[in-house]
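**User:**
Everyone, produce one record:

**Assistant:**
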Amino acid sequence: MPIGEVKSPSHSLLIEATSPTRRRVTLQGQGELPNRDLVIHYATASATTTAGVLAHRVTDDGYFLLTVQPKASYRTGDISSREVMLVLDTSGSMSGQPLAQAKTVASAIVQSLGERDTFNVMQFASGVSAMGPASIPGDLQGRQRGLDFLARLAAGGGTQMDLGVAAMLAEEPGPGQVRIIYFLTDGYIGNDDVVVSAARRLAGHNRIMTVGIGAAPNRYLLDRLAAAGRGFSTYVSLNESVSEVTKDLVLRSAYPYLTDVTVDFGDLQVAEVSPGPIPDVYAGQPLVLSGRYRTPGSGLVTISAYSGGHQVKIPMQVTLPEQQALAPVAQLWARRKIEELMRDADPNRGMDAPAREQLTELGLAFSLVTQETSFVAVDHMRVVDGAGQARLVEQPALLPEGTWGQALAATSPEVASSGTSYSSSSSGSSGAGSSGSGSSSYRDNDYGGSWGAGATAAPGGGRWGWAAAAVLLGLLAFRRRKA
């Protein structure tokens, strides 16, 4: 599909247009500190809804991506009233600008409510509090009450769950309403797989929209949490315009464009298509399916859905090539396969042996970080002093840009006093992972290490607030986490 504007809220870029459907992007600045995610926004929407396919096949196994891009202008049709739940992380790691941004986003969502909508606002830290015991109307008076509650929120403290609020979220929304939960956090909550497993079991009638705040949010957790709740994730970096991001978030989450989506691949021999079931398509949010094929060929693919209560069909002629090198297409399929394996694992017993072996092989074959594989970075540069003697230099991990280290260390005095830096997951090491130039993926047990995918590492003992997800999803447990 043709590419429009390309920009980044996190870095200065050099952008070269090599064709209508390709851009070459490089960093403009030299010596950039790797303490924040590289975020690139690019536009593909046009006057009509479009679909496109990318494929990769260099051996007997082929992989493809099918993307449906909704049009830029659309009719929303009949929109159901919403019951909106705003859940804000107010723990210590959200101190300062992150909480300010979260409150700005939440306030804009409150102001978007109509009189047919209802809503409630909750916050979690050392405890949990809500604006009220039940949702209230989204009229002028109700919206003002919500804004006043948000204005009083302050960050600090540890985490503790509240069973009453969890039970309230587990109840069904009002008649004819769609419940949308906005979960605003930096994602430094740990125990990712248990949280996502709970989401899959308990999401039910809820749609979950995660909003990642800060320079390096835990995208692995937030993306999976949103997928489990049939929603999507949105991210606000410290240097980004909150108003623009919020406007887009409200538009996308309030108006589903295509629902009950199905894809008929006709005579094409495809397998292991994900995600499944296929999620709705929201305004401004493309649908991306990935899958495998062994037999090249051409055929008619038909995408069917409902828009504004009317059935629509998008036919497209697709060729799955015999030879074409687009390695990221295969890697994305592998990442999703890894996510499925982790999602289906028992939260108490973990993966069985065959699934663990399959996870390991995927990590090795596609150079991805998993629970069973890690990257080992090898620096071949050797520096000696004037006497020709080598010495060991300890390189502390960088805090994500804008994160207040004292707040993160507040619950661990022995670490705070030592001056040791904390490290957190970012786009280069979180989740089902990213491959890196000059790195290799190995079995963890070959090197005596074990890194949980997407987990936040903290020296010493740190008490992290993953009770937010308990509040959000009814996860009735609390545990201390040590890395």
